[in-house]
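Aim 2 progress update. The chain analyzed this quarter is reproduced below.
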Amino acid sequence: MYKHPENLNKKSDYLENGQFQNDGWSHSVFLGSAWDPNPYNQIEAGWTYFLQNSFHDGFSDISNTNHLGQPLSVFNSRNTKDNYEREGEFSFSWERQFRNQEDRQIAFQFTHSDFDEAEDLGFEQVYSVPSVYTQLNSIGIDKNGNQQEWMLDFVTPLGEEGELEAGYAGERVFENIEYANPAFSRFEFTQTIHAGYAQIGKRFGILSAKAGLRAEQTHIRAHLLAPSDSLSRNAYFKAFPTLHLGLETSSRTELALSYSKRLNRPDSDELNPNPEYTDPRNAEAGNPALLPEQTHSVELGFRYKGNAFTLANTLYYRYEYDAFTELRQSLGDNTVLTTIENLNAQQSAGLEIVLNSNLFARSNINLTGNVFHRTIDATDLGYAGQKRVVSGNIKVNSTFQIGAGTRAQFNAFYYFPSINPQGKRSPYFYLNGGLRQQVLRNRAAITLTATDLLYTYEVKRRIESEELSQRTSTRRRVPIVYVGFTWKWNNTKIKDELLFEGEN
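Predicted structure tokens:
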């Protein structure tokens, strides 16, 4: 049962107040080529390389007192993290149109990517209570892996107003994760997916219908090699039907009714049982028994397209079973472990609104809102009863052309409260702003952006369980400012939308 702190048999209090900063740099390179040997065949190939290095430095004042308020330990902590990341990707695609029927085509795509990531974490804790001494800890994390995706797709018309699309898609993912914290551990994750799909669409005057089925066979191998040897295998077959009905009530309005079933699989970190310490008192571990979460979704939509704005409203109901949720538990000595489990069920009913407006000259305003009522059932995890909340988010993106080659952009975000079996997260709001100026005869651009202009970003989380009462508050010390220069090479297009640092 959910209890408040005054009802707990409190053993100790742990208070941490700190701040941190991040610095870093990144480079990315893209090379691509397209070749059309004849009017019916198109071939494209591309290579992308990304390199990033970032450094985190944090300071905290920490005190631990017993149930009488007497100090058990008081110390200052400095946490550093040096992170290196490299990613590479190669892609190839071939598309062929049939000579006598342009609407009939066959396409093949293949992508290979790999990555390397290394983190060096250091912790220095200077104690004043119970005695004066310094404790040093270090953690090393190395990750590498690769992924291949391939697809063969065929599209052919069916009569005057129909179309059939069918094909095969495959994917293989491999990841190797090694920790030294300070004991050595190693975890390997392999996932292979084979999927076949078919979709038929047909129009009957003002009514359109589309039905599809995707069948997937998944094989997962999660192998903990050290410090102990533990192998977990999972294989399952799933089918995902979809149905979409559309009705054009006029040249400007359309109604739509749809049903779909979706699947969200756990990744390697969510299956790795070995704890990863982000600092000496906070660890995260996956769950090798975690099942994929599945969602049934029903949506009723209305769309209006006017001269100055477009409006799309969607009423929806979603039922999720085996949904992912995070749980926190105390390991003693003020160490908290975060794990992931499957919920019994989770239900959401809500309204999503998308408004795109060009009411004002030389401007564009995009508003998206998603408000829903959510109910979660965690009785299988030992939490009695159901928990409910009204949650969602509102996002506004606006761009303005304020001069020759000068564009301004503002983004505003508001997030409603959210819940999990043990607690909740508070609402929060922040605003971003940016400018882009075209220079050198529009062949280059200078960009200036600021994340959290009004300094309002603050996220508060509360956890209450039989053994743990936890409050955390995270906010930015100052807005994140970014200055960039982009050079347009050949026919490369400079993106209109600005990207802001520090998001997510």
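Confidence is low (pLDDT under 50) at residues 1-8. Helices lie at 268-271. These observations will guide the mutagenesis experiments scheduled for the next reporting period.
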